Amino acid sequence: MQEPILVIMAAGMASRFGSLKQVEPITDNGEFIIDFSIYDAIKAGFKKVVFIIKAEDKEIFQNAIGKRIAGKIEVTYVCQDINNIPDGYNVPANRVKPWGTGHAIFCCKDILDAPFAVINADDFYGRDAFYSIYNFLLNADENTSYAMIGYVLENTLSKNGTVTRGVCDVQNSFLINIQEKHNVEKIGAIIRCKENNQFIKLKSNAIVSMNFWGFTPKIFDAIETGFMEFLEINLESNSLNCEFILTFVISHILKSDPEAVAVIDSKDKWFGITYKEDKPALLAAIKFLQEQGVYPQNLWS
Fold this sequence. Notes:
The protein is an alpha/beta fold and 301 residues long. 27% of the residues lie in helices and 27% in strands. Strand 9 (190-195) and strand 10 (198-202) form a beta hairpin.
């Protein structure tokens, strides 16, 4: 039995937030969202965490996060390098933006040899999700379905602007389809997105992906194949902003195996900092959970 690994994607450019929000303190003790994810993961049973970061941020992460959790959990860093692409392809000369979440996991292919969970660095998921995914991965093998933690759309919105969400079709607890919906917002009692200059109403109880996945290493075959297909399409147009996202990979897997991804429901409310104005609500939520005894006043003391 292989011990599950936690992978935290933290290489995003945080363009809407305007700074490196992954190391934005959210408590009086200077703790970050990542601290709470790691704390919950340790409680669930995870013993190793892999941070996917940009090379220029490595020292920041080591000083701000790595040293803080030293001795609590094994830590490894992987740099998401835009030049790390399959042989036979060339990166456009002016490309600066990372290739996306699918590429982030691609960069881990040489170090992940056990079932692993994947999360965003700047999302607060709730503890139950970590217990659920850990137990799933603990029993995973090469014949086991992948898993996704599914959140209720209404529990994942920002009051301060639009968001992008992977809206899912789920049948019999399996993921049937996932589509990226952009400019998702709540206006009054209505949740809507915008497509082709038209507003489309979304169900408030729709299940969405918040990039909390459970995979076995066999996912790397699908990621590499999908990435090469993505590069064939987008390098020809010399696009500098296209992204190879995990939902692209998942959608391709589902075409050949409609029961490849189990959906584990979470009723927890998601919190994150998509915009600077989101921070007060997150701080209030964390403070409430501390007052309820869910988290100590100082996570690592």
